[in-house]
Every structure is written in C-alpha cells, then in structure tokens.
Amino acid sequence: MSTSSQNPRTRSSTGNNSRPSSKDGPKKNIWSSMLDSAATGKRLPEKNLLILGGTPESQREFLEAYSADTSDSSTSNEKRKGKLPPVANQFALGYTYLDVLDADQEDTLARVSAYLLSEPSLSFAPLLKPLFTPQSISETSVVILLDWSDPWTWVRRLREWVRLLRHVLISLDDETKVVMEENMTQWRERKKGIDTTSTGSQAASSGAVVIGPGEWDEGLGVPLCVVCQGTDKMEKLEREHGWHEEEFDFIHQFMRTLLVKHGASLIYTKPFQANNLHSVLHSSLGIHSLLKKLSLKAQFIERDKILIPTNWDSWAKIRVIREGSNLEGISTAWSIEIQDPPEPLTNGNDEAQEEGTAEEDDGTSAVNIYEQTIKDPKRSTSIAYPGSQQGRNKIEVDTTDMQGFLTKQLEVLEQLKIEDEKDRAAKKAPQLEMSPLEDNSRVNEHIGPVQFNMGGIQVDADDMLQKIKDREANRSQRKDPVSSPGDEKAHNQALANFFAGLVKKPGGSPRGSPSV
Known about the structure:
Layout: H1 2-42, E1 46-52, H2 56-67, H3 77-80, E2 94-101, E3 108-117, H4 125-128, E4 140-147, H5 154-170, H6 174-188, H7 202-206, E5 224-229, H8 234-241, H9 245-259, E6 265-268, H10 277-285, E7 307-308, H11 315-319, H12 327-337, H13 350-354, H14 358-361, H15 366-373, H16 402-426, H17 440-447, E8 451-454, E9 457-460, H18 461-478, H19 485-503
Parallel strand pairs: 1-3, 1-4, 4-5, 5-6
Antiparallel strand pairs: 2-3, 6-7, 8-9
C-alpha cells in the first residue's frame, strides 16, 4: 500500500515539475527571436565617407554644409545649420559620424562614418588601408576638398591625393580588388540618380552609358567627388588679382578634363547657399529617400554654381567651354603623372616646381601646363591670359599705413643723421692756406671783367659797383652826426642870447613897435 501510494505521488510531482519547464522554454525562445528581428529591422545602413584635403576648419565647414538642410533656398541660415557631432581632425586620421535624415527630418536613412585626412603623405597610407574591405567597398565614397583661396594649387593637390589613393588601392588583397573592379563596372554601366532630361540623349534614358575618349581611363575603384569650396572668394580674385572670365573658364575646363578620367563628379559650393551637395553624396553612397526622389541636373552656365554629376561629362561637352584646348595632351600627361608615389606639398609651390621632373621642365606635365596659366600671385605679380605669355598688372596695390610708413622713415633719417655726425667727427675739414675770396686779384685773373649790355651801352659791372659804393659813402658823410647832450645845451643858450640881445639893443625899438 505504501508503495502504491508513493508511485502516484511521485508521478504527480514529476508532472508538476515538467509543466513549468515546458512552458518557460518556448516562451524564452519566442522573446529572443522577436528582439533579434526588431534589432535587425532598426539597424541603420552603414556608409563610409573618406574626406581628403583642406584644413581642419574647411573640413568642419564641409561637414556643416553636408549636415545642414540646403535644399531649399528659402530656408534661413540658422535653420539650415545642422547639429554636428564632435569632430576629431587635428591630428592624423580624423573621425566623426553623421545621421542622414529623410526629407521630413524625422526618419534616419543611414549613418555615415566620416574619416578626415589633411595631408597626402605616404605615412598615412596604413591608416587608410583598413577602410577598404570587400564588404565596405560598395558603401564607400571619397571626397577631395579644394578651396578658392588658392586655385593655383588645385591640380598639384589633386595629383598627390590621386597618387596616395592609387598607392593604397594597389596594396589591397586580390579579393578586394575584384570587388572594386565590379563596383566600377556597375558605375560605368548606369547613370545613377541623374536627371536624364539634362543630357538630352536617348542612351541616357535607356540607362546605357557610351564610354567616349578620355572617360573612365583611370578608375579608382570607388566613387570620387571633388568639392571646390568658397565660391564667394571669386570676387576677391577679380578685385585684387585682375582675374577675368578667361581664368575661371580655364580652371573649369581643366578640372573637368582630369576628373572625367576617374569618372568623378565636380561641384562648387558656397557657405549657407542652396546647393546639390546632399544629392551628389547620397548618389555616390547609395542613399535613397522614400519621400523625395533623387534628381541631379548638370549646371555649367553660372560660374559659381558648377555641378557635373558622374557619368554625365564628355570631351565634346568640355570643348564647348574654350576652343583650342589640347584635351588629348592633358589627359595623356595626367595618366603618366599619377603613376608615381605622392610628394609632399610645399607652400607657394616654389620648391616643388624647382625640383620638378623632366616632363614638367619641358612643359608636357599637366601640373606645369596648369600652373603656367594660373600663377601664384606670391611668386608673380601678374597672371597671364590663357594661351599667352604676357602678364597683366594688378588692379589694386596694397599700401602700408601712413603712420607706420612715417615711423619707419623717421628711424631711417635718425640713423642717417647719426652716421653723418660720425663722419664729420672722423673727417675734419681741411685748412686752406689762402681763401680765394680774399684775393680778388687772383680771381679776376681767372674770371676777367664782367660786362653787360644796358640799353645799347656796354657797362662794366665792377665800375658800376664801385660807383654805387662811393655814392653811398658820400651820403653817409653828409648826414649830421648825432649830437651829444652838451652840444644841444650850448646851442640852445646861444639862441637865447641872440634873442635877448635884440630886445635890449640901445637906441632901437623892438620890431613892430610904433615910432615916436
């Protein structure tokens, strides 16, 4: 009985313990799968943006322009300015991140990791290499920053950055190179995010891309965009350096000739001005808005609003800017120059030009061709016309402050005065035995009589001078000398005695009295 009574108890206890365990097990698995699916759904696409060139300040300005809402020109500057996370770009490879919002500024489309580098030095190549992996190639884009404060350095800077990128990309493993080649093939075979109405070609509307001469000759494996900042400084170039439309057109054409070889895009930007920077970068990174359709239209009429999207440009369109340009020679020279390792950039480019290669000395280098026309004002006071060797003077000349100039001149005069006094003290005046002015006879022997014609009469100057002296001497002698007080008293007494004698004269009567 006891045994039979224990068995049901044992079965019941076993059954009670098994039911909670069976319920908790499936419940735990369900929640974990739900959390994993929710996390996967909210995971943001990761994009990489490699920003090369510029200064830490210009890089921050670029990030502010990219994070701001500049699509609407009616928006105020305060509203356009976005909230930028902390930027660490003072040393070596900098980093920050940006959240790309949708058109309604509520939903986040992607998170962009921005890597920043200011100098094209080979020592930074190991820092860039880990950024290019088979998984990140399709999510990566490169931006090169240039500034209108020094447009004469653009081609040289662009060459060094392209050399550094080529050095890094060539050193990658074979798997990554295969992915890069596939990525470039996809870019060549489609027009991604471009408004086909701007090209006016049937090939563009069908999605096929016809590769012309000089296009995609030097693909880098990742999309490239060149951003020229500070178009508001164009007026300063006109005012202070005498630039005209010829210089701006030359730069525009030259840059497009080089960038079309890499399939790169070109855009001019201005602080707080509505532009298509968002659209250009989103197109290269593959970020698409669900509320607003991405549309890019080439702009090449207004010189401060240039926009050349990827896969749009060609030599035929570039030749329209200026006639007589040797696009073939520039393109060939550029392909040769970018094969070398990068060189350090120098201020003013004086040393860089002096230590240039033989091709640069012969004038066949693309950099040399560019810098012969767009010259640095610090090295030359004139800027030549495109295609001519003669320069032009600047319109305005910088002058120093008046008080500063006078202060410097006073110091110079004081120094000269001290030097003169020292010279006088060191060199005494020689003592002459006889002054020539004291010996008139010797002077007259050498000079002779001085004569001049007066009214037809020949007059001797010496005789005339002597006569004038004699006449003045006679006049002085005729004048009465100044009498002393004693002489005046005697004279007065004599007059008094004379009149008194007339009054007291005997036998006479005073004058005028009647006679008796």
